[in-house]
Amino acid sequence: MSMNILVTGGAGYIGSILVPALLGEGYGVTVLDNFSYRQSTLMECCANPKFTIVRGDCRDEQVLHDLVSHHDCFIPLAALVGAPLCQQDRIGAQSTNYDAVQLLCKLTSPSQMVLFPVTNSGYGIGEPGQYCTEESPLRPLTLYGESKVHAERVVLDREASVTFRLATVFGSSPRMRMDLLVNDFVYRAIHDRAVTIFEGHFKRNYIHVRDVARAFIYAIEHFDAMKGRPYNLGLDDANLSKIELCQAIQYMYPKFVYLEAPVGEDPDKRDYIVSNTRILETGYRTTWSLEDGIRELGKCFTILRNNHYANV
Predict the structure, then answer these.
(1) Taking the complete model, does pTM exceed 0.85, yes or no?
(2) Which of 78, 108, 244, 296 could crosslink 8 through cysteines, CB 3.0-4.6 Å?
């Protein structure tokens, strides 16, 4: 099936992996991005005749209007990602994470697909020992979580949509982010050989960026069976506390030392474990383990020796 896909924010951390993968599957891909991080991550795609690039803002109604009729599928990745960045720019968080998604949904027809990434941080603080499923209450703790939860509702209301409640993403990307938890801790293991942890018992789930990209492609291929529902997307064997994450990194990098601070607290209060049963029941399977990602990041951070690859 010939299909044209519009990816907003396609030059970002996930998009820089997803867009080449979509092109590799033979899809026509248009990326709409404002290149706010001055990245040049999609240069390899420019030789592909099925790749189109538009420099612009996903909040611009005229820009979106001109693009919508030429595409069959929409993947709105453009967002202010993470609690610190959203707190720095509250207006931008609302207008990009919610308003732009609402605008896209208004402009699309029921025959067009929307595949939307949200965050499983919307679960906030889970019940002790109980897995968060897609039916669990959403109790976001930050503006970032709130904006994505509200946008997800708008997307699912249009029915011809799939949403992914992403676990904390890790792994290398041409538009690298080193402020993500696994990426950050491995960077410290390689360069600092030490990290101080606050509230190390807090748990969360993890997923490799390449498995996120694969999930979007999988949803396109299985859209009729999956549409209209949210899906948790993470590694079932990686519901880990920060201490357990550090232990996994230390196993591969024995010189790495971690210390749990006796005082102080983490501003990120997320604490939950997540069930990924729903997406597994569709037949989707991840291919990257946490250990694979830690090994990959070790190579990545042998190359990168500064920390400007972050959202804040």
Answers:
(1) yes
(2) 78
